[in-house]
Design a protein that fits this description.
299 residues; disordered C terminus; three-stranded antiparallel beta sheet; alpha+beta; 10 helices; 34% helix
Length: 299
């Protein structure tokens, strides 16, 4: 489940799109509405506009949300009363968890794509004339969608399932994309740290544990390929040190890393011995000296 949110100024055009009863391809069904006169699209838009007039200084009072579900879940949303009811239930729960309450809205389902989806239009000016905040809505939306997908047992797409047009990526984006894809693919088939490290080594990907200043405590992890390095937490949230420990188990009990050692497989820079460890006589110098040649920072 994903939700795409857009902010608009005019209710008329969005209502006509969301509740387009004339387009035979869309076969639009108005599933639910609250606080509007639903005789026609014009009366719906007028209802929205009258309430928005309580806050005339708000230039963009319209929110348009497209709630889309995977084609893998098509059996969960049949074109009947049962499927429509579930879609409305999820849409209302999405609004509730996003803090969208006490306001006008319409929910309309379209049938012009292979994946089930509906369109939600709501008024940012609530019934009491207060403005509904959209602060950090992208971050909150991602969390709510993941939570609802899990709650309703909907399809979770694998991390690397969506192909991207690599030709449109800039060089620094392509390096990050390739490293992220390779590392996530390695993680997907690994059952232990040794499995993970072995696959990374075979692909020329280096890994380093980052320590806190003047301490042997591990505070993070970095990955490197072809002199490009990035922290695991910035590469993907599943590649942060804490997330990897949850997935692969206790790293220290399996690898028994000594304070003066760091894993730097071939291709990651530095020198390493037969076991794949890099030994530094001075552990403080080891922390301060980069294990790769840093690339120029893009301004």
């Amino acid at each position: 489940m994903i939700a795409k949110i857009k902010t608009r100024a005019d209710f008329g055009g969005i209502v006509n799109y969301a509740n387009d009863q004339k387009n035979k391809k869309k076969c639009t069904t108005l599933l639910a509405h609250e606080g509007v006169c639903a005789i026609s699209n014009k009366t719906i838009a007028d209802s929205f506009q009258i309430q928005a007039s309580m806050r005339p200084k708000v230039k963009n009072p319209v929110k348009h949300v497209s709630l889309a579900f995977s084609s893998q879940d098509i059996n969960r949303f049949p074109d009947n009363e049962e499927g429509d009811k579930l879609m409305v239930e999820i849409a209302k729960k999405w609004m509730e968890q996003m803090g969208i309450r006490n306001t006008q809205y319409i929910i309309a389902r379209h049938h012009d794509t292979k994946h089930p989806h509906c369109h939600l239009v709501f008024n940012r000016i609530d019934n009491d004339g207060k403005l509904i905040s959209d602060s950090n809505e992208r971050i909150r939306n991602a969390k709510v969608c993941r939570a609802l997908t899990k709650e309703y047992g909907l399809y979770f797409a694998p991390k690397n399932s969506k192909a991207r047009n690599k030709s449109r990526l800039r060089p620094y984006q392509l390096r990050k994309y390739n490293l992220r894809s390779a590392t996530l693919d390695a993680l997907a088939v690994s059952r232990s740290w040794n499995d993970f490290l072995g696959i990374l080594k075979s692909q020329g990907i280096g890994m380093r544990f980052n320590h806190a200043d003047n301490s042997d405590k591990i505070r993070g992890i970095s990955f490197c390929q072809n002199e490009y390095s990035i922290a695991g937490s910035k590469l993907d949230r599943d590649l942060s040190f804490n997330s990897l420990c949850v997935t692969l188990g206790n790293m220290t009990s399996e690898l028994i890393i000594q304070p003066h050692q760091a894993i730097t497989y071939g291709g990651a820079g530095g020198t390493n011995n037969e076991q794949g460890w890099r030994d530094d006589k001075d552990k403080d110098n080891q922390r301060n000296e980069p294990f790769y040649k840093p690339s120029k920072r893009r301004r």
